[in-house]
Amino acid sequence: MASIEFGHQKHATQFIKMKHDFAALKVNQDRLMQAIHEGCEYGQAHRYGDHPTETGMARLSLNDADKEIRGWFKTTVESMGCAYSVDQMGNQFAVRPGKNRTAPPVMMGSHLDTQPTGGRYDGILGINAGLETLKVLHEHQVQTEGSVGVVNWTNEEGARFPMMAVSSGVWSEAVPLDTAWNLSEVSADKDGIKHTMKQELERIGYLGEQRASYKDFPFAAHFELHIEQGPILEMEKRKIGVVKGAQAFKWFEITVKGRDTHAGTTPMNARMDSMLCAAKLIVRANKIAKEKDGLATTGILNMAPGSINTMAHTVTFTLDIRHKSDEQLAKMEEDCRRQFQDIAENDSEKGCSLEWKQLVDSPAVVFHEDCVAAVQDSAIEVCEELEKTSADGQLWKHMISGAGKSLRKMIEALPRRP
Amino acid sequence: MASIEFGHQKHATQFIKMKHDFAALKVNQDRLMQAIHEGCEYGQAHRYGDHPTETGMARLSLNDADKEIRGWFKTTVESMGCAYSVDQMGNQFAVRPGKNRTAPPVMMGSHLDTQPTGGRYDGILGINAGLETLKVLHEHQVQTEGSVGVVNWTNEEGARFPMMAVSSGVWSEAVPLDTAWNLSEVSADKDGIKHTMKQELERIGYLGEQRASYKDFPFAAHFELHIEQGPILEMEKRKIGVVKGAQAFKWFEITVKGRDTHAGTTPMNARMDSMLCAAKLIVRANKIAKEKDGLATTGILNMAPGSINTMAHTVTFTLDIRHKSDEQLAKMEEDCRRQFQDIAENDSEKGCSLEWKQLVDSPAVVFHEDCVAAVQDSAIEVCEELEKTSADGQLWKHMISGAGKSLRKMIEALPRRP
User: What was the ipTM of the complex prediction?
Assistant: First the structure.
């Protein structure tokens, strides 16, 4: 990414009106990269090259490295005179006061924890970009209308304590506090003990007293800069994705039942081959997804009994379908259910039977248009100065997030503007 | 099956010439069924109905029940004055001498061991049909030209000692004696001990001294009556399959490599989805098999990493392809290899790579035309008297065996007639 800017919680018209005043406010790219690499000294792992920065990260939530970078975060924001607080889930909030101190702040942020084999930017970029924005405001002594801040959400990855976005979940009141506190870590320590989240929050000194709830610490808006996790921008040689929402998705487990007959003695037309049927269903789901401009994925498939010269009597596979529109996702599901049934009954020789089990139903989320407009305006401005690498010359693009639903939960919890 | 008769080791012309003399020689169906049920008292298991004969069988090779039925076999054949012998693999041979005692006998037979959840006819019918034939000859005091006998092959199922047709394999010199003797049973006994085949042969008193080799005990021909293991005769409402040979088959393990990207953030056209590719290959293999009048089966499929919302980077699946003709099987394989490559490169979005590993190559076997003719003549004669249940009125049918290769090994070992 060649340049980074943030949208602000202002109406697009306001933003354009005030543009002149902000002309000098540019991110210091060198400082930003330096801050990222400085923070990555805590918990660095998996060296892949000779350069000091050529490592991955293993900064599992609430481990010693996480404790250290949390201290670094606190020092950084306090050096700029931010109001700093920690809630019951260890979420760190830093707010740079604006003229209006009673309105909720516009927050930027992400998470500082990583996967055990994590990279140097996932989450980390979002925090550092927020901090760099505060630094620019601070060095130019800008007084903003409302307050602006940065948040570090605890265990957003869900890699150590197995619930993704658990602490933003508690803040948005989607997850009960006790559920979160009682989560046991995935792996035991060297003494065979699995600690809970609350124990580890206490151990590293981040069990705050502030209630973890958007009611006690409301946001006006939340912006998150994130590296692209899909390959779309890179493929199309664009620089910035302006995310308009999160796609809807559903997870299913589908069981195909046939008959386990012998590969050598059962003629093709006498078969109830559940693997062949499942293969046809997987191919069809992908065709439907393409037609509807959605996504379909089978990530797990099991078959029984599992012998080279015997057909499977049972195949179970997962189906993950996604679409940016709830309605289109419902149509994809409907098409899959109808066409799967047809394949099982009429295109599987002697026929197979199907069972559907829904595992997850996550509706689509549409971000607030003012927030999207603010990001879009910034993206347009930044991209004007850059070399036009994409086929159509446009370097930014509207996108729908394919990632998890933490943001969704938070957005839903945001107080709606009239 | 309404009636049972055997072909004899005679040229069809001879058989027809002598037909008149054999007119009275008919299988005693009641006696045959009685003998089957009598033998099934040794090792009966898995009751499924109230009638005494409504059980399955668990007569694992060389267990106590197998020892008992072997004794019953010996008593039965000796009561008819047969020459009886046991070889180093516990194979039991019973020969009823003909006029010409120097020519090798025509043997009938099968196996008395069963799967742990076996039925009452698989193998058992072949032995009993042979014994019934000897009884008919015996009670009519027929002196045959050559000698005629019955063989019981040890551990033909391979269920207890894990090598199918191992003892006929030693006799045909396809399996070394020591390899067979040293086979350990699949499951340990209550003391945790796994016995070898040799130990168990010794324990039940069936470690014979006769060398286990077709060179020491040659056959003129081998006939086996077997229940149908596929559904073809039943589907077509026919009574007898005249088996002309065994189909060719090959087993492969095919590895599809793609990339494990996220189900939510990877657009369809940017994917290297190894599961989708594998599904297309399985569907295509079945299409090719149908076109070529062969068989294709995928009985095992594994995928990694195995996560609902992540594409598999690697899918490995088995492919079992079969055809009665070696040439057509080679063409099926060629079609699969070419079309699979095309699908992986051109119909899998960003492409997947393929690796083929051949596990088994078992060429087709064609049975001797005189043997087939003898069975066919008997089948025609028997079927004349029965109700014509099939669509075309013919109750017998030429077939190709889809079962394993024990017979192939034995047939290959048979001395060829000029």
Answer: 0.73
